[in-house]
Amino acid sequence: MNVDQRLLRLARQPYADKHTQSIWMQIYDRLGEAVESGLLPEGSRLPGEDDLASMFGVTRVTLRRALSLLQHEGRLVSRKGVGVFVRSISVRYEVRETEAFNMALNGADSRMDALSLVRKPASADAAEALGLKSGEEVTEVRFIQHAQSTPYYYAVKEFPVSVMPEFARDYEKTGSILGAYAAAGIESYLRTETRITGDFATEEEADLLHISRQAPVLRSRSVNEDNTGRAIEYNRGCWPMLSVELVFNNKTPFA
Amino acid sequence: MNVDQRLLRLARQPYADKHTQSIWMQIYDRLGEAVESGLLPEGSRLPGEDDLASMFGVTRVTLRRALSLLQHEGRLVSRKGVGVFVRSISVRYEVRETEAFNMALNGADSRMDALSLVRKPASADAAEALGLKSGEEVTEVRFIQHAQSTPYYYAVKEFPVSVMPEFARDYEKTGSILGAYAAAGIESYLRTETRITGDFATEEEADLLHISRQAPVLRSRSVNEDNTGRAIEYNRGCWPMLSVELVFNNKTPFA
DNA sequence: TAGTGGTCTAGACCACTCG
DNA sequence: GAGTGGTCTAGACCACTAA
């Protein structure tokens, strides 16, 4: 029995009393289960909306309410003119903030790719957090991180030029941020503050992370200092909300 | 000029090209601005959907797409048979995780109310996090926190009976958790681990926090230990996603 | 060019809330 | 009973994508 047939059987199950739970909610539940059970595997394309609507015995409008919620949750992604696809949220990556850059990933095929690297005046946010003078320059690097060929983290980092004047060269040579730190004479550092908020994806983030616009994300803004207390990095990152669990450990007892 | 008139003027502004941005998105933007600008104050009721639809010159269905997104974001709340209301997200509360219980609030009228206090076997989650034996009992306390008479934090705390056998009495007497700690001989403690995730509100959470079901929330799960390393509390909390900023500070340098 | 998802309409019925 | 938000339909037109 192929996927379409099994999906059809799922769709054709009788609905519970409409007044108990709305039809579109029941469709939402069934499609969600289909994704979680693996009937609709990660990355696979759903039948067209007209087909789905007739399978579930409803109008396209009603069907779309179910799809729409699944998209807002970041579980499905639609591409205009192409189709609706399953976005994996089966894994929830654990990110240990104390490990700073080395995010703990289950799989080994994790890549952190630099999208761009430019020298420019610090953003207002970074200038304040790093205590920079107005107009002071930074090296800004945009990163995207994948796991199992799904993007799940997007970050913009700013490194003061005054601290690491040759960041671009050093990063190029060593291929890692820690390498660039070391090349600038920074052997140890401290992530002094991390601020976490929830928000909705911007258009750029939605594109890069393969989620819908308006899908919720977790944002992190953090500052790194070297062991002399000098601010060396400002980082803004975001994850699709359901894709990550942030873990903070603490060793400092309270009074 | 009253609110309805000013809202009408906002609604009657010509729409940008439909192909640039959809009508419902433009309505969404305008209503969002109306909330942020204070034209629609916190807690106020919007005109009925029929009225709004005719004000904006669209069908109720189209208008509802705008309202629906604002509700998913936790900025509006609807009450069936009553109306649609503005939920304040103008403030984003800063919660310093290192201060554990004493959340930094701008205003002074913050209350932490206990909803229930019962003795029962530890939840599976808590038992694992606290290292309890199967079936071991805890005192479970459910809290809701308000600021400016808006609920913005809901927490379920579990305290092992083996550590604080008289928690209920001590909490009653002192009126605070720290008081109950002290009464049990715990003078200092350590929030050893905090795990942050994003999720969607359950029905109970949506009710208590005055947000829509399916509105995103930030969840925190944390463990407190006393200065001998004994686990004394397991806490599960959640905030409406847009209402909070979590701040973590770190004093431990990396290797 | 055919198929896809995105938008919008006009109208209907319902359950819920409150006076 | 009057007004509210919640649901659903049947049909239409559009822009985008890929073959």
Describe this structure in words.
The structure is a homodimer of 255-residue chains. Chain A has helices at 3-12, 23-36, 49-56, 60-72, 124-130, 167-174, 177-183, 203-209; strands spanning 76-79, 83-86, 93-96, 110-121, 137-147, 150-160, 189-200, 216-226, 231-240, 244-249. With 255 residues, the first copy, chain A, is of the alpha+beta class. Chain A folds into 2 domains: 3-86, Winged helix-like DNA-binding domain superfamily/Winged helix DNA-binding domain (Arc Repressor Mutant, subunit A); 93-247, Chorismate lyase (3-Layer(aba) Sandwich), CATH 3.40.1410.10. In chain A, strands 4-5-6-9-8-7 form a 6-stranded antiparallel beta sheet. In chain A, strands 1-2 form a two-stranded antiparallel sheet. In chain A, strand 8 and strand 9 (231-240) form a beta hairpin. In chain A, helix 3 crosses helix 4 (60-72). Strand 10 of chain A pairs antiparallel with strand 7 (189-200) of chain B, so a sheet runs across the interface. The structure holds a DNA duplex (19 and 19 nucleotides).
